[in-house]
Structures are given as structure tokens and as C-alpha cells.
Amino acid sequence: MTRSSRTPRQLVIGGDTFLWSVRHEHHGEPGHYEDCCEVLTVRRPGALGRFRVVFASCPGHLVPDGYTPSGTVGTTDGRCLNLHEPGTVRALLDAVTSRGDLIVGDGVTEVDGWTVFPAVAADRPAGG
């Protein structure tokens, strides 16, 4: 059975449980989309607060665009991450929370994923 992409996945770290999902987002008018982004959203079960790690398309950075597989973000120098892998999500979660960007209250915290990409990509296996 295929897993629904709309159902968040669960990640347990120590005694903490998180729910996470990956989405592709566009901005602009239908048929003339601009600013493609791959977005990892992480929250705690039952909580309204969440954080979004956003990988926006920009020079030198790659996001899925029909040629790149879903969930893959990377740089033109060949480094990449697969946002569908729990180990990558864990590494991103660790990198973001170590900077103090925590899920607080009922709000949404948004983080530029490219700011943590180098550190996370350095610690992940190639392609992961």
C-alpha cells in the first residue's frame, strides 16, 4: 500500500515525538508559477505551533522542478539532501533547534533551509 503524502510521518527522538511532512509550493498565477520551494514542516502531535524549513529556488540551489526528484534539494556543486529520509529530517531538526529556532506556542516559525544546508549535507551520506 502506498503511503499518503498528506499524512504526516512520525519521528521519535529520545522521549520526544514529532510529526513531519514535505511539500512542494509555488507562488504566482496558475500556469506562471514562480519561486518554487520545497518545504519540510515539523510539529509536535496535538500542537498548533510548527516550524517550516524552506528551501527556495535561487541561483546555485536546486529544488524539484520536474527534473529533480520530489524531496531532493541540493546545490550546483553536487551536494544534496533527500527530505523524505527520516535521518535527513532528524539532522535538519537538530541543526535548526541548535540555533534556538524552536517550536513555540501556536505560531509558525520559518527557517531558510539553505542556512543549515551546508552543515547537514556535510554530515549526511551522498544523496541522503
TrEMBL record:
<protein>
    <submittedName>
        <fullName>Uncharacterized protein</fullName>
    </submittedName>
</protein>
